[in-house]
Design a protein that fits this description.
Oligomer: single chain
Number of strands: 0
Structural class: mainly alpha
Shape: globular
Order of helices and strands: HHHHHHHH
Helix content: over 70%
Strand content: under 5%
């Protein structure tokens, strides 16, 4: 049986495809950070594009076997959807934040989900405190809502950096 974590540990089969998907995802993450800070809105198209880009990411990591890994990977966001929808219903998270987190979970190996969630929770709390402090100091700062997409992206990227580095090393080795 193929495990998702085994695919990423083995090295990228198609490192160029893997890195192209990663670069596109990073550009989309930058656009989401801007949109979330400036407008407190995460466009649906960005979340959908990140989700779709997970397919070339996993194919690049494991070839056709990567699709099997992606099928196993689908269980993570499916299991996470229930508590995330409950947080949305309780108005703890906005709909864009839920969609963003579910799309980034398609990229994150199951073993790295807990560290990702810890970074998101701590980052969201820290960002909320900083915004409240800035509102007290400078009344013009909007601290009524926290742009939670920022810590979601930070958490995902922090756990995915080793995966990106591995793909980059595989690409460099293929050029040598």
């Amino acid at each position: 049986m193929i495990k998702v974590d085994d695919l990423s540990a083995a090295g990228a089969v198609y490192p160029g495809l893997t890195l192209a998907a990663a670069l596109a995802m990073l550009l989309l993450c930058g656009a989401i950070v801007y949109s979330d800070f400036a407008h407190r809105r995460i466009p649906n198209g960005y979340c959908a594009a990140i989700a779709v880009l997970s397919v070339p990411w996993w194919v690049g990591l494991g070839g056709i076997s990567g699709l099997v890994g992606l099928a196993y990977q689908l269980a993570v966001p499916l299991l996470a959807a229930i508590p995330l929808l409950a947080l949305f219903a309780a108005r703890v998270l906005a709909g864009g934040d839920v969609k963003l987190l579910l799309s980034l979970l398609l990229w994150t190996p199951a073993a790295l989900v807990l560290p990702m969630l810890i970074v998101i929770i701590l980052g969201g709390g820290a960002l909320g405190l900083v915004l409240k402090l800035l509102k007290r100091l400078f009344c013009a700062v909007n601290a009524d809502t926290v742009p939670y997409g920022v810590p979601i992206i930070a958490g995902a990227l922090l756990v995915l950096i080793p995966e990106f580095r591995m793909a980059m090393s595989a690409l460099q080795a293929s050029w040598a």
